[in-house]
Write a structure and sequence with these properties.
The protein is an all-alpha fold and 151 residues long. The chain has 8 helices and no strands.
Length: 151
């Protein structure tokens, strides 16, 4: 496991959400300090604000693509296309190990189930019932492979 992927896993295991973990582990590569990265990505955890929609780890990865390929002009169609292409490549890589990018599907939750905004305590049983550590690792590995062309 690469140093950045390991850092993403460590951040998650230390209590940060999935989006924060992936985004902050790589944000330094683009000149952003870890504290800012943690703040910027905080609202995307739990499938965006624990709404259980798009997986936060995937959202954090998509934000990293924006650092490298994001358009800075509203009419830059070429940059927008490149950004979307790379995000789709990361999603495809993530989906090699996961059936979906939707948080509730990855966690086998029903519609509206477990969307309480209060975070769950990170206990031993939490880690046993949630695949989130592996999802963070999978998203970080996808970022490494696609965005940084590393394994």
């Amino acid at each position: 496991m690469s140093e950045r992927t390991q850092r993403a896993v460590e951040l998650f295991k230390s209590g940060f959400n999935c989006s924060q973990s992936v985004f902050a582990a790589f944000a330094g590569e683009f000149g952003m300090d870890e504290e800012t990265a943690l703040r910027v990505s905080a609202g995307l955890g739990g499938g965006v604000g624990r709404a259980r929609e798009v997986c936060g780890a995937v959202s954090g990865a998509a934000m990293l693509v924006g650092f490298k390929h994001g358009a800075v002009s509203g009419d830059d169609a070429e940059a927008k296309q490149k950004c979307y292409e790379v995000v789709q490549q990361i999603i495809a890589e993530f989906k090699k190990n996961n059936p979906s990018i939707v948080c509730r599907e990855l966690l086998a939750l029903g519609e509206g189930e477990n969307t309480n905004p209060a975070p769950e305590a990170r206990t031993e049983s939490y880690y046993k019932k949630r695949p989130c550590v592996q999802l963070v690792e999978d998203a970080a590995r996808a970022v490494e492979k696609v965005l940084f062309k590393e394994n």
